[in-house]
Structure formats: structure tokens, C-alpha cells
Amino acid sequence: MKQALMEVMRMNRICRMVLVTCLGSFILVIFYFQSMLHPVIRRNPFGMDICCRKGSRSPLQELYNPTQLELSNTAILHQIRRDQVTDTCRANSMSSRKRRVLTPNDLKHLVVDEDHEMIYCYVPKVACTNWKRVMMVLTGRGKYSDPMEIPANEAHISSNLKTLNQYNIPEINHRLKSYMKFLFVREPFERLVSAYRNKFTQKYNTSFHKRYGTKIVRRQRKNATLEALRKGDDVKFEEFVAYLIDPHTQREEPFNEHWQTVYSLCHPCHIHYDLIGKYETLEEDSNYILQLAGVGSYLKFPTYAKSTRTTDEMTTEFFQNISSEHQTQLYEVYKLDFLMFNYSVPSYLKLE
């Protein structure tokens, strides 16, 4: 009797185990079919529900293997710009490849967008404030929706964007190979005048006056007053140019990013950029990039009329008082930027 009771209890345990197993399998099957019917949803950077990106085309794929069979005029234009950089690097290999290996410090200007697999090398005085705003929208995962709602000073806080130098070597190499890389350039001397006007003629830029203005006045101005030596807030453009071409300046430390050459900031002879936007075609090039990223339908690059923008006419005026000797020396400093990005020698220059 006791043995029969134990046998019944054992059969009950077996039945319960089978029941639990069947029930668990049934639940998994239900979940599987639900997931097939309703793919996992994630929140996109703009607060809109979209399906996960897995399986979608990356910007790099869309650029080099477009869904449309015929290449657009825009795609052809960017291919020409890429070829121009490649040809210039090859023709000037001695000067453009002084170092064959980049250090992490060389990558601090490359902003990474993991969600859209893009890398943007920012160049000061080439709409970088607005592009940083756009990158904050793209990487913010719903925190921002309108780039122009982000204050300019917040766009320049380094912790708001992740740069490539924050990754380890294998991660850096993977992203350089797999992500779409782009930068924006501007006529070199127009960018230089823009930097001078912004950093040395605006009274609020006291940090630049102290850091660079006092040094420029001390080195380049004869019989400078004590006030000028102390404040450094009245640097003339001629003095600024003399400072830039002074061999002592170039030996002392790298240029500040606002007047550093593009090839030194973004290293286009070491890093293959897939897209090279230009300040002169800023809106078209920017929106083309956003289109490739798959966000062009609901995110546009911000545009607004800026009456204080440095123009070609302004640049011509600033160079009128620069001697031909100094113009020639300055052109040599920025020569690779002119050649690489297909900017002709300005007609106002009097090169020796």
C-alpha cells in the first residue's frame, strides 16, 4: 500500500513537470509570434517611434551604393571633391604626410554619432556651431528636437558630444572604416578674416585678448603702450598676419583651432572623408548628408540670414594693407587648404 502511494506521488510530480514545460513552451511560442507581428520598437533621437535600425541601410551604404541606379549630380560633385583631396595628398605627399601615424589627440575634432553611424570633423568658423547643434539632436535620443533651441554656448560644451579620441584603438579603427565621415570647409582666407573679426575685434572675447592678443602686441608692435600690452584687445590684422607667419609662433605651439589649417585639424590625407561640404553650398550639402542619414524628412539644417557674416569683399579689404611678402608667406601656410579643397588663389593677392 505504501509503495503504491509513493508511485502515485511520483507520477503526480512527473505530470506537473510536463505541464509546466508545456505551458512554458506555449508562452514562448506566443511571444515569438507576437514579436514577429510587432517588431521591437525603440525611441528615435527625435522622440518618434520607429522600428529598430537593424537591417536598414547605413549612410555609407546609401552614399556608395544608392538605392537609385543612376548617380545624382550631388553624388557626382562629392566624388569630384574626394578625388581632388586624394590627388592633392598624393602630389604633396612630403608636406601633407609629415606623420604617418595619428595620435588620439589628432582625433579630438571628430564627433561620433553612433545611432546614425556618422563622424563629423568640425572646423571652427565653418558653421560648426550649427553642425554641433544638429549632432546633439541626432545623438540626443529625444532630448532635443530643434537645433536652434540649443544655445550656442551649450553646443560647444565638450561633454555634450562624444569624440573619436574617447574610444580605444580597435573601436577607432572600426568606426573609421564603417561610419560615414564628413567635414565642411571654407575659402581659407575668408575663414581667417572671420576668425580675426570674431576673436580680436569683439570686446567680449577677453580670454583671446589675454591669451593671444597680449602676445601678438608684445612681439609685433613697436613702442606698444602699457595698456595694450596688458589688455591685448586692439590687435591689428597686419599684426595678426605677422604673428601667424612668424617662425617662432609655429615652433612654439600649434595654431589655435580657429585659425589652424583644415588639413591639420581633420587630417584628410590620413583619414578618408566620404563627403566634403563647403560653406559656399552649406545648406545643400548639409541637407544631403541628413538625407543619407535617413533623417532628411524631419530634420533640416538651420539657416538664417547673418548680416555680420564675413564676405569675400570684406576679406579683400582686410588684405589691402598686407605687404606682398607677407601675403606670399601666409599663402604658403594655407596652401594645402587652397589646393585640397579646390579654392583658387584670390585675385586680390599680390604674390611674389
From TrEMBL:
Keyword entries, A-Z: Carbohydrate metabolism, Glycoprotein, Golgi apparatus, Membrane, Signal-anchor, Transferase, Transmembrane, Transmembrane helix
Entry's localization field: Golgi apparatus membrane
GO cellular component: Golgi membrane
One Gene Ontology molecular-function label: sulfotransferase activity
EC number: 2.8.2.-
UniProt xrefs under InterPro entries: Carb_sulfotrans_8-10, Sulfotransferase
Pfam family, one: Sulfotransfer_2
Membrane topology term: Single-pass type II membrane protein
GO biological process, alphabetically ordered: carbohydrate biosynthetic process; proteoglycan biosynthetic process
Homology family: Belongs to the sulfotransferase 2 family.
Name under which the protein is recorded: Carbohydrate sulfotransferase
Species assigned in the record: Pelusios castaneus (West African mud turtle)
Organism phylogeny: Eukaryota, Metazoa, Chordata, Craniata, Vertebrata
